[in-house]
Amino acid sequence: WQAHSVYQLGLEEVLAVERIKASFHIKNEKSMAQALKTHASLPIHSRSDLQVDGHDLQVWLQQKPGAWIEKLLVQIEGAVIEGRLVNNKDQIKKWVESCHKQKKKY
């Protein structure tokens, strides 16, 4: 199990997949153990665990609400899950400002 897959599905869905696999005799104890280990090691388990929200992004980038917020939050989630970004408001702000300078637009 990859971190991003476990994050997107959530632990309950991952365990359901493992139960289905077991019902077809595709049981793999290592797979179940890996899924549990991966879930436990995730820095966040849902978007609400992020230390920032859409309002923070609006303030930092001085932009009006729009679809860009969702896109940027997805990027932040991915970076945090993959370990490229620490789930810390100041760190995320620096990362967002750096990305914004490079792209100028989301």
Summarize the structure.
Helices cover 67% and strands 0% of the residues. The chain has 6 helices and no strands.
Kindly name the structural category. Answer: mainly alpha
The H-and-E topology, N to C, reads as HHHHHH
Overall mean pLDDT stands at 91
Shape: elongated
- N-to-C terminal Cα separation, in Å? 30 Å
| Helix count, DSSP H or I runs of 4 or more residues | 6
Low-confidence segments, given as residue ranges, are: none
Determine Rg (CA atoms, Å).
Answer: 17 Å
**In total, how many beta strands?**
0
Q: Fraction of residues in helices?
A: 55-70%
Note the main sheet: none
Q: What is the percentage of strand-forming residues?
A: under 5%
Structure description:
The mean pLDDT is 91. The protein is mainly α and 106 residues long. The protein starts with a helix and ends with a helix. The chain is built from 6 helices and no strands.
